[in-house]
Amino acid sequence: MSFWENPTYAEFWLEIARGDLATWIQLTPYVYAVFEGIHLVGAAFFFGSIFLLDLRLLGFAPQLLARPAGRFLLRIAGPAFVLLALSGTLLFVPSADRYAASPVFLLKLGAIAAGGLNALAFHVSAWRRVDAWSSRAHPPWTVRGAAVVSVVVWVSVIALGRGMGYESRQLPPADLEAFPAFD
Amino acid sequence: MLEAIQDSALSQLVVSDRWVITANSKQILETLHFTAFALQIGAAMAISLRLLGFGRSVSVAALGRPAFRTAWLGFAAVFVTGALQFAPIATEVFYRPSFRAKLAVLAIALITLVWLHAHVRRRAGAWDAGERIHGSTKALAALSLALWPTVIVVARLMYAFVQMASR
Q: Considering only CB atoms, which chain A residues are within 8 Å of B62?
């Protein structure tokens, strides 16, 4: 039996999906769509800044000094990740029972963990010696490898996130009917 | 005109289920659209933040080149994947206020980014040499920082309306 078929596990998430917060998110017009918009704004800040750093690590944009650029871009990616986690949690809550048992969702969490581990490994190894290659057009192969993994993993996370939208959510009937003037 | 777009061979192809790719075209196009706008808007946000005074040790000229290249290539992909999603539902979507709102905010955001790019191309060297970034450039950067996230949220709301209407 897979862990997500465990009755105690399933019941825990079902309770959250039936809670007050879940009800509020489901039944207040526009709230779900706006949270999703905020999640996507976070994704743009996060993925865009990480991608620019990966470009530099791959040897594109050789005039960019890796050290200051890395510090600057990671200072964008960090808060963006916090925004993603918060908005992501709020999107998860109304469908907690279904997402907690969804292979696509669990795979997405796994991919995020892989991306985090890749970033951590890079941070405690090659990044420690960044002064040695900060101005080199072609950083060491370990650095380029980490950049390739990063691009592949984060694109997969976006694809899996989009996939989640298809499988688990039921549109609440009350959504979007409150402001007919807008549409 | 809208009917012609909707009935075009390309539009028909997008919604046909002849091949695996076209049968799943909705999900594939949306994923590509998302990836592309994340790259485009993220790159635009990074250079805007730099111009507003964050990360002063980063050269504007050196950051601007990859950032604007990513933004414009990304936008090209956003436009193509967006047009392919628009074509099969052209007649339903075109007259929706929410669709027009999205296009209007998008147009203003694009003008801002083009303008910002012109500023960067002209003055990046001087800024890197120590000249202060002018207030007009900062205003454009702040505008871009506000408008692009707005485009995303308005686009997401439009998507919800279109979904509602097609149910």
A: 61, 63-65, 69
